[in-house]
Amino acid sequence: MYNKNNHHKTLSFILYSVIVSIIINLFFKYQEFNTLSDIFSLFDYKFYLLSIFIYSALYFFSKPYKIKIIELENDIKSKELLCESNKTFVKNINNKGYEIKFDFSNNNPLGKALLQMKHDVLSAKQKEEERLMVSRGRELISNILMKHSNINEMSYEVLTNIIKYINVNQGAFYIYNEEENVLRNIETYAYNRKRFLNQSFKIGHGLIGQAAYELDIIYLTDLPDYYCSMTSGLLGEKKPSSLLIVPLISDKKLQGIIELASVEDSIPENSIKLVKQVSEMIAQTIFTLKVNEKTSQLLEESRLKTEELCQNEILLKQSATEMEEAHEKLEETNQKLESKIKEVENSQKRTYTILENASEVISIIDKNEIVTFESPSVKNVLGYDADEIIGKNAFERIDPSYRDKLYSTFDFLIKNPDGQQIFEFQYIKKDEDIVWLESKGRNCIENPAINGIVFNTRDITQQKIAEREQRMRGQMQSLSENSPDIIIRFGIDGKVFYVNPMMQYFTEIKTKNFLKKSLEELDLEQQIKIFFKNTIEHIKLKKKKHDAEFVFPTIHGTKIMQVNAIPEFNEENQLESILFVAHDVTERKQIEIEIQEKNKKITESINYAEHIQVSILPNTKLLQEYIEKSFIYYYPKDVVSGDFPWFFKKDDLIYIAVVDCTGHGVPGAMLSLIGYFLLNNIVDHDIELKTSEILDELNIRVRHTLRQESPEAEARDGMDIALLKINLSNNTLEFAGAHRPLLFLRNSELTEIKSDKKAIGGIPLKGKVEAPFVNHVIKINSGDKFFIYSDGLTDQLGGTERKKYSSRRVRELISNNHNFSISEFSVLFANDYSQWMGKEKQIDDVLLIGLEICHF
Predict the structure, then answer these.
(1) DSSP letter string over 231-254?
(2) DSSP 771
(3) Number of domains in the chain
(4) Which of these, 270, 335, 443, 727, is most buried using a 10 Å CB contact count?
């Protein structure tokens, strides 16, 4: 601002000077001077002008400097004021006037530094005061701890001094009892008065227990509602606002708890710090006092013992003579007593050992059916420890089916003081095995030493098993004695242990002459001895059952015996004996031989029938002589078949048929021959017949041949047929079918021509007129393919899901492979059928004929 004003003033002065100079010059230029006085007057005038000009110049040039001087003077005064203010501030700080406030402007950096210094001094002073407060508190508590040897006195003085020193309202002192694992309140102080509270906390219970469990302080400023409150004469009953709980820990072990509470919203941090620091000192002192107290107690006990010993010593000295006199008697008595004690101990041990290893269990059961005593032998007999049974219901492990019996016995013993009962029952052992027990019960309720029913129980399982085996052995003996088979038991040394009466029946050697004799001693045929000897050696080597047939010479003639040699082992799984059971199968063998001979004859007859059938029926080779591209897939279920292919050639006519007769095997083969010759006879006599007319005529002749038109007719046999008639002269194909369709493939299009839903033959329905078969005519193109088949192909089970081969699969194979030649179709169907059937059993005869008409 100052520089800007000076600049304006300088410009004004220059402008003023220029104007004055111009006026003077103009004046001299145009003024005419007539006289010298005019010149002097003019000079005076210029002098005055010059003086004015100089004065003006001085005025203009001196004014900025005056302003500058004034500003400097003001600045100096301001600096002096700042120095005076800083001086006053420093004096106040020196005089500890820290609370006086000073407002320093921004242009007083020294003042700001002094203010920061003040804050630092105050902070250092506060920390020093806190340190001194903690230090004095530690010293105070330390002095208290050093002068006390009693925990209660020490705890009271420590608690009251801490409360007063840190200025809280109330507090409590707890000592930890390791044996009971609880904290007990021994001192409580509130509002300058000692309080008497009998409180205890388990570790982990309440805030006190929580601090003890965590071994860490708890400081709360929001106390729970259940926290206790103290009553003051001035404040009345008021709940504290802040709480400090400090565990007293020495060498990582809990010694006690100090609890401090204040009505203020918080407890100062340095107070908390002081309590934390003195807590370890207090804990160590408590530990020391406890040790000292224990030591004092032990010393006092030792002192009392010493005094007692001194008194006893005097008495002993007084009675020494008497004792010496009685010593010998006492020694003698002691020896006798020790002998008696040893005898009693041995007797007790012997009794316990006997009870423990006894085969009987002794039980005492009170009136409420509760076991009050169980002998240790129960461990060996039933698997339980005595402790597992004593105090429990006596009947809970007894088999439920025997409980009613035991309850009845128990009631009887209760009602009859002198009564006794013996009973048997089943019991469930600890390992869940069921055993048989026999128990003898006696009423000893009146005996105060027993006060219950005494049961002597023993395990009779083996006895029961032996009895059962004896019964079974008797039954087996009876069965053996009355068996029609020879039964003989040998030892591994070859001696006879047992033989039943049938041996005497077949050999006339008495039974008693077999027993305890070796094979060499027996009067048997040599071949019988060799058989028994070899079989015994085989059993000894293999140790498993051996079956064989043996020709046995007897007094009743030679018999064929089915012999079973059975090894018998003992408990150690060692071979003990060998049981031979020989069953007479002579009659069965004769029947088997007769059956085999008959089967042989039947097989020969069937094989011859097959030979006849094969020689009569056409095959692929014959068919291909007339239709080059053709095949017959023929797969009978048995040796002879009920399905048969039929072929007949006359002039320009070719007849081809797939015929499926009822049944398969021999019955089907017989019916196939009837059908074969009837077809030959029909077409041979009249070639003008259509395929439908041929089937109508065949139907009539089959019924006539099998006499199915008779009212007494029972034979429902018949046949299904797919019949083709190919006319080579006019390139036509006729088809008629009984339950069997025709598949016709032209180029890639497959057509199925349905058959009539009726069969050839069978008993006609009374009162119903049968419709004739339908005739189908197809104009043949070169390359057309035709397929006819029996239901044995489509009904075959197989595949992954064991389903039927199905007509749908036949159609799909043809459609999907329409470019195949007829020979390729032959291989395709043979392989696909075989793969489909897999390991399944063939259920019917299979017949498939395929042919392709190429040219004429």
Answers:
(1) EETTTEEE--SEEEEEEEEETTEE
(2) P
(3) 6
(4) 443
